[in-house]
Predict the 3D structure of the following.
Amino acid sequence: MNLSVAPWKINQLAEIETVTDGMIRNYASRIEDIQFGDLGLAMPMERGKYIHFLENQPVTVYVTVRGLYYFFHSNVTGMVREPVPIIWVAQPHQAERLERRRFVRIAVDILPQEFHVMGPEDSDWRPLRGKIIDISAGGICFTCDTTLRKNGRVKASFSLPDNSTQVQTEGEVVRLEGDPYGLSHRRLAGATFRRLGYREQEAIIKFVLRKQSEMIRRGQV
């Protein structure tokens, strides 16, 4: 998206992503100042110390604007300590805007620590052996070896692949591959999140957003 009118405002929440020695690091921040074609971001801290950035260091910046997520690639143009510690990055000419409902599904390989399906007539939770093979902001796709019912309930506890957050959720089975009658012995199913805490939802959105930005960078979407 061309930024003829930049959507940035002071105090908007932001996140700074860097890659150091092949490791992706993300730091919480916010917009502190806007001037001379640069954005001033609050200098992030870790263990009580400010994070040091190098001039011209490449960064990816994520900003939340009225429920939409923007991200852009930039570089560090400077740092100041007084009166407020700020890292300056070049304002972009273009940024990607991603609505939550339009997030792509991201392929994963997650073995839940706990996985259950509601029994017949919603009687009790029964263990489910399965693996999550993709995830989005709205739900999961998984394989299993158990008969499932369309509109049936499942619940799972798992860690995101980046180990950032432990997720506990309940969902509704909305897709069963190749079964017109709503019952399936097949091993592929899709579920929509029905119960998901705000913290877990935000963690999934950020994980999917990061992966999607990588895919866009590589020309895969």
Q: What stands out?
A: The CA atoms of residues 54 and 76 lie 7 Å apart. The chain has one helix and 19 strands.
